[in-house]
Amino acid sequence: MKRKLITTIGLGLAFCLAVFMLAGCGGTQGGGGTAAERSALIVGFDQDFPPYGYVGDDGEFTGFDLDLAKEVCDRLGWEVEYKPINWDTKDLEISSGAIDCIWNGFTIQGREDDYTFTSPYMDNSQVIVVKADSGIKALGDLSGKTVMAQVDSAAFYLLEADGDQGELAATFGKLMTVADYNSAFMELESGTIDAVAMDLPVARFQVVGKESTFLILESDPLSSEHYGVGFLKGNTELRDIIEDTLREMVADGTVEKICKAYADQGISYDMWILR
Question: Distances in Å between the alpha carbon of 48 and those of 55, 152, 178?
Answer without folding.
Answer: 7, 14, 12
